[in-house]
Design goal:
The protein contains 11 helices and 14 strands. It starts with a strand and ends in a 20-residue tail after the last strand. The radius of gyration is 21 Å and the shape is elongated. The chain is α/β, with parallel strands linked by helices and 341 residues long. Helix 4 crosses helix 5. It folds into 2 domains: 59 residues, DNA polymerase, domain 1; 263 residues, Aldolase class I (TIM Barrel, Alpha-Beta Barrel), CATH 3.20.20. A 10-stranded mixed beta sheet has the order 3-4-5-6-9-10-11-12-13-14, covered by helices on one side. A two-stranded parallel sheet has the order 1-2. Bound molecules: iron/sulfur cluster (SF4). The site of iron/sulfur cluster has 11 residues, from loops.
Length: 341
Amino acid sequence: MQKKILTGMSLDELVSFTDSIQESKYRAKQIHNWIYLKSVSDIEQMTDISKSTREKMSAISQVTDVKIKNKQVSADGTIKYLIEFADGNCVETVLMRFDNRANLTACVSSQVGCACNCKFCATAKLGFIRNLTPREIIEQVLTIQRDTGLKVTNIVFMGQGEPLLNLDNVLKAIDMFNKDFVIGIRRLTVSTCGIVPQIDKLAQMDFQPTLAISLHAPEHSLREKLMPIEKKYNLDMLMNSLKNYVLGTGRRVTIEYTLIKGFNDTIDCAKKLSKLLIGLKANINLIIYNPNDKDNFEKPNKDDVQKFKYILEQSGKKVTIRLERGSDIDAACGQLSNKYR
Ligand code: SF4
């Protein structure tokens, strides 16, 4: 008999489980705490549950079936995990820490591979393999917590895959992060390359995670060279959808812009980007391109990055430069490629 996996069950589902073994609702609550707040990986670790109940549980269930296939620790403390699921497929998940902040941010994957084929992205080279289930998404955060003993405070869907192409499962995972892990909705960020109908759908929801848009170019002709999605949902459609999203939800969006030397880091691009974003309630996050061994792009010069930032700031927007984390272990933005495999 295949054992039930307890991770991924809501409190109600755990109550049904404890009912099935003639245990109380209170037992379900204890199991829930052990899984989501204390991050145990084994029923034997649930020490406030009697030995006989643990034996009953172990006969038909287990906490998890995912494995850490590989783990790399960067000089800056970033940890990258290659996580293997029951069917042998793997994804990468990254834990980022920043010296002067208490936040611990997990960068999670939403799909095995990705179909979007952005030219600067190592994941794109894997192609699309399959969507992750809600449980496989939350297992990534639990794997980090089980391994480090630390509590993740922020989650960004910026790992492998396009989260809005797996929206139902991503929303179920977000709901669990919010209710079961008790992480505030504003500490949950979904990043998309611009799947317009799904952004429109997200705008209709009762709750919204923070929305980040991978823009990376200020005009159609340049963007389509980097991101094939531009052919389907072009910048005009995307900007229209974002304006409606902000209007409908009152939420500010984050514009992510990866600066690539000589390609989109020019003064002309900065001016065009400022103009494009007029009237949109947005913060801008500039990302320094991280070279990977699969394309010919280069990192921008520091001076050009500062000039670009300065021009954007003149438009009154808040502009930040993303701190580079984990590039020595290929864990930085755009570098996730399951290389170990
Ligand atoms: S950047 Fe994101 S959407 Fe684009 S190919 Fe990579 S994983 Fe997919």
